Amino acid sequence: MAFEGLSSRLQDITKKLKGEARITESNMKEMLREVKLALLEADVNYKIVKDFIATVQEKSLGQDVMRSLKPGEQVVKIVRDELTELLGGTDSKITISPNPPTVIMLVGLQGAGKTTLAGKLSNYLRKKGKKPLLVACDIYRPAAIKQLQVVGGQLNIPVYSEENTKNAVEIAKRGVDTAISKLCDVVIIDTAGRLQIDEELMQELTDIKRSVKPHEILLVVDAMTGQEAVNVAQSFNEKVGIDGIVLTKLDGDTRGGAALSVKKITGKPIKFAGVGEKLSELEEFHPDRMATRILGMGDILSIVEKAEEALDIQEAEKLEKQLQKNKFDLDDYLTQLKQIKKMGSFSSILKMLPGADRLKDVKVDDKELVKIEAIITSMTAKERKNPDILNASRRKRIAKGSGTQVHDINKFIESFKLTQQMMTKMKTKGGMRKLMKGLKLDQMDEFKNMM
Length: 451
Known about the structure:
Layout: H1 4-18, H2 25-41, H3 46-62, H4 71-86, E1 102-107, H5 114-127, E2 132-137, H6 144-155, E3 159-160, H7 168-181, E4 186-191, H8 199-212, E5 216-222, H9 227-239, E6 244-248, H10 257-266, E7 270-274, E8 282-284, H11 287-294, H12 300-310, H13 313-324, H14 330-342, H15 346-350, H16 367-377, H17 381-385, H18 392-402, H19 406-423, H20 431-437, H21 441-450
Parallel strand pairs: 1-4, 1-5, 2-3, 2-4, 5-6, 6-7
Antiparallel strand pairs: 7-8
Helix pairs in contact: 1-2, 1-4, 2-3, 3-4, 4-11, 5-6, 7-8, 9-10, 12-14, 13-20, 16-18, 18-19
């Protein structure tokens, strides 16, 4: 996961700081040296590291300590605030035109993940009530058009393409015209990339830009390329002009220095982050939340938003009625399991919890959820309603049907019965909905103010 190394180092430093009753120039110098090394090892640009350290030192030694914070805690707060500023300071939303269609152009080097990102972004915008059209303008890479068509097919989102045309500018223009005729209010143009920046690539992108006048040009950057990502961002911004950055493969780079450098170098905000291979795994980029996550303070707001997005009110009300009747069976359990899966992987959610560094040795296998689902769906309706009837022969049949072992069935049923006891205690009106939402909006605001 991105920032893993940096996060671990900074959390060790901040723990020491929090215990300090008094901050002196000597221990401040030692602490800043550790922060500097941590940032450099994370592949953050040297000049940015130098400026960051100077700012933290100036604010830490020149500022009165807040009455509510110990000196060490005050320094941690300054580090967090400066880290937030480095990542962009404030959230930056994607531009949506008041006069549809909104045209979004994706640019970047080959292999950065533009085509997959096109699908993820269209899926994200559709959830926001938009009707997107994907346009295949990568006419050079073998099977690029087919890849976009497959992605569009998986999401049931239309794709405009021309198999035999070798003019990307004309394809883009006709793609926008098609969107207008089909009443699509968002056009996402997947452009061609190269293995390296060249004049031919830049000229084609400039010509497409001039032709379709995109409302948003997003640079797709592979976070795993480190400092090269910064150089790429600089070149595209200078030669084409970009409005924002999307970091892909942020789940695969343990350093994450690109994210800490790219905003400062280009002056353009990071708007999204790709955090997994699934077409649903695209997150809005929040500088403040990312900073607190790096420092081990967690990202409760993102967990709450994921829960609210996954929440099915009708299912929650149905379960509530079941609980009122002292009933919570395996059909209810399966429904809740599917709601949880909508939030993403357990491992990704775990990383958002405060103090997640203390849980790094905890092994979370998301395949267990698949196994449990297979076990439940291998049961008859009668067995799901009343697991007490599961004798040895039934359990053997279920194990065979789900591709598991009998001891897996036994272990799951024991776990389910404990869950059943806990759930039947939740009889307060609206209890289930409150649990699934996690926190009310006013509690979210309160939490945000505390951070």
